Amino acid sequence: MDISDYENLWNEDKGDYVLLRVEDDYMIINRVRQTVLLIEDDDISDRVIAKMIEEESMIFDTLEQAYDSVNK
Q: Chain-centre distance of CA 55, in angstroms?
């Protein structure tokens, strides 16, 4: 599967969808709606996260940091 189905995460919705560090990995969250985006296919998830990092999506260490960053 092509990750282009998720390109909104690093394009038009880049400010909403961010990465949260979780141990040695990342989780995709929507910091505005305070939801998690779960991609069940691990390969696709890894590729989407790598693309988000490449496109310089915001990365946070805690949920509180991510949620508090809204409207700042």
A: 11
